[in-house]
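--- STAGE predict ---
source: upstream dedup step, 1 unique chain passed
mode: sequence only
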Amino acid sequence: MRKLLHGEILEQRLTTEQAKSVTRHPVSVLLTNVRSLYNVGSIFRTCDSARVSELILCGFTPHPPRKEIEKTALGAVDTVPWRYFKHAHEAIETIRAEGNTIFAVEIAENSRTYTSLNAADFPCCLVLGNELTGIDDDVMSRCDSALEIPMFGVKHSLNVAVAAGIVIFESVNAFRRSV
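--- STAGE serialize ---
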């Protein structure tokens, strides 16, 4: 076994131009009031690697162009469709009207495990919130359901970019298993 060289990896990947027109997975991600530019950049990069349909930035979540986002996104701001809404409730109304099921990624009453997604749940939007306070109650009340990542240790939360990566890839895998 050997690690692939950078050039070998590039031969297997989409170009920036191809990424703009390729079919995407029916999973979108909504960030509401995420404060860290570096978390936003990391989530852009994850959204690119999972080929989600779009990233929606809301509230005081920073958005491009910002060098701090671009530093961790490594070019993903150019390959991930994204849009900004001042208010998360406006974004939720819009994406629901586009046919999405809205899932809060949060510890909540009657939450489902993040591994429980099935064909009927797609297209879907994953809502992630502030690093300290999570998703605001007003936004939670507008979601259709909540997906929870089980916590087996002492801590009851993960970094938002880590949680996003776990749930984004599981959602994409659930969709791919269902088709």
